[in-house]
Amino acid sequence: MIIDLRSDTVTKPTKRMLEAMMSARVGDDVFREDPTVNELEERLAKMFGKEKALFFPSGSMANQIAIKLHTNPGEQVICDKYAHIYNYEVGGVAFHSAASCKLIDGNRGMFTAEQVIEAINPPEYYYSQSSLVEVENTTNKGGGACWDFKEFENIKKVCKANNLGFHIDGARIWNAMVAKNETTLQYGNVFDTISVCLSKGLGCPVGSVLIGDEDIMKQSLSLRKLFGGNMRQIGYLATAGLYALDNNIERLADDHKRAKEIGEVLSKLQIIKKIEPIETNIVIFELNDDVDETQFLNNLNEKNIRIIGMGSNKLRMVTHLDYTDQMHDKLMGVLKSL
Ligand SMILES: *Cc1c(COP(=O)(O)O)cnc(C)c1O
Predict the structure, then answer these.
(1) How far apart, in whole angstroms, are the C-alpha atoms of residue 50 and residue 205?
(2) Ligand 1 centroid to 215 CA: how many Å?
(3) What is the DSSP letter of 138?
(4) How close is the Cα of 270 to the center of ligand 1, in Å?
(5) Contacts for 242 with CB less than 8 Å, ≥ 6 apart
(6) 15-247 topology per CATH
């Protein structure tokens, strides 16, 4: 038994999800003739109260195309220094959109409307024009932290007053909604574009969806083609998405509960300096200076436990659909013995 807590992306489709995929109705999506992907897109658009949704092979592509939709070359995206779009998408903001990022020094990947106001460039011709505010919920590098929804509403007002687009990277938006009891319509009401992942907590093998109204999404289909992201019989994947929306959202609360239990055990260990507050399914902790990170990881590896190092003695565990009760019991035992 291997306990893999490196990411919630390591899950494999369950038998029932696979069965649903095997019986999917499919067609050529480049002709927009795949009935199941059309159904998934319509359903997600409706869930968020938007006019349009488009399926993507990855969350990075959905985010990068959102940025392209909101910016012109030379313009600037306001985001947190922890943002996935800035740190983990290969500098795509510069590469694909010829735009730059103005980084906010936030708290665990989150910031305030006042900080957005400070980050907006003055109108003089020699500044880069600020055109988009980008946030992430939950925050990945911030340890699965959830925003206070009020702050989104405050930032929305600033965006409106300054003619800025507002995009949310919702790779783990489902975790935030379950943890904070929020609704998809609330998000649709505040954001211009929303990217959601089906392949993280929801357990699909592939898939992200970008959601927004027609006016902003007009170029999304041709941009997806330009980025090389058009696909054919993707109903097989869209079926997994539909299955996950029906079956795998509420259960995220179990992942959150287990992450908190892991955190409680870690907090009693001598070798650990600090644990980030645990709100969802991500546990980030820091080892004491005298503990060797590589040795610690190897020690767990020998016990068939895989977790990930984030540099500077920080480590990450992520709970997910394939992390069973049996694995949880074993992990708790091993952690207690450290
Ligand atoms: C995983 C993730 C993405 C998208 O990742 P892909 O691997 O490209 O699907 C985007 N944003 C955040 C915060 C993520 O954690």
Answers:
(1) 25
(2) 25
(3) S
(4) 33
(5) 20, 36, 39, 40, 43
(6) Aspartate Aminotransferase; domain 2 (3.40.640)
In 3D, which of 128, 144, 219 has the Cα closest to residue 180?
144
Atom number in ligand 1 closest to CA 60: 8
Fold match between domain 3-8+250-337 and domain 15-247: no
Task: Give pLDDT, residue 298.
Answer: 95
> Above 90 in pLDDT, residue 248?
yes
Q: CB within 8 A of 310, min separation 6: which ones?
A: 141, 284, 316
The model carries a pTM of: 0.97
| Ligand 1 pocket member 58 (CB < 6 A) | yes
Given pLDDT bands bounded at 50, 70 and 90, which one contains residue 312?
confident
Residues 147-166 have pLDDT tens digits of 999 999 999 999 999 999 99
Determine whether the shortest distance from the Cβ of 7 to ligand 1 is under 6 A.
no
Q: What is the CATH number of domain 3-8+250-337?
A: 3.90.1150.10
